[in-house]
Amino acid sequence: MKFKIKIKDKEYQTEISEKDDLVKIRVGGKEFDFTKDKQEVIVAKTSFSRRDFSKKEIKAPISGTISGVFIKEGDFIKRGQKVFLLEAMKMENEIISEFEGKIEKVSGQKGQKVKEGDVLVELK
């Protein structure tokens, strides 16, 4: 099923398909796979990686060097809040929290090189 959605005056082409226990949602160039029975999302780039939403962790989306840290242990953060700047290929990328909660541990520090998937923050 193909359709358009509008979010904050911006229009997106979307497609939803279903096969067995997997629901695929494509928005623009990004594809998201959801299983029907579990609280997990598989985020597709060129390969699949599983994300477990029972754990509240903020991970590095790409490899790079942390150039800014905007949180500390004990802070309460909201979903959508900027937590890090990550420099990769001479571009700064904002890392935004997908979760709300109290920060239990901050593993990422300014100047630190990280790899895609490294845990930067753990929340309660």
Summarize the structure in words.
There is one protein chain. With 124 residues, the protein is an all-beta fold. The protein folds into 2 domains: 2-52, no CATH class; 57-123, OB fold (Dihydrolipoamide Acetyltransferase, E2P) (Beta Barrel). 0% of the residues lie in helices and 60% in strands. It contains no helices and 14 strands. The chain has a 6-stranded antiparallel beta sheet with strand order 1-2-3-4-5-6, with no helix packed on it. The protein has a 4-stranded antiparallel beta sheet with strand order 7-14-12-9, with no helix packed on it. The chain has a 4-stranded antiparallel beta sheet with strand order 11-10-8-13, with no helix packed on it. Strand 5 (40-44) and strand 6 form a beta hairpin. The chain is globular, with a radius of gyration of 16 Å. The termini are far apart.
Order of helices and strands: EEEEEEEEEEEEEE
Instruction: State the domain count.
Output: 2
Q: Tell me the helix content.
A: under 10%
CATH superfamily of the largest domain: RNA polymerase II/Efflux pump adaptor protein, barrel-sandwich hybrid domain
Q: How many angstroms separate the termini?
A: 38 Å
Output the CATH class name of the largest domain: Mainly Beta
Sheet having the most strands = 6 strands, antiparallel
According to CATH, what is the topology of the largest domain?
OB fold (Dihydrolipoamide Acetyltransferase, E2P)
CATH architecture of the largest domain: Beta Barrel
Structural class: mainly beta
Q: Rounded to an integer, what's the Rg over CA atoms?
A: 16 Å
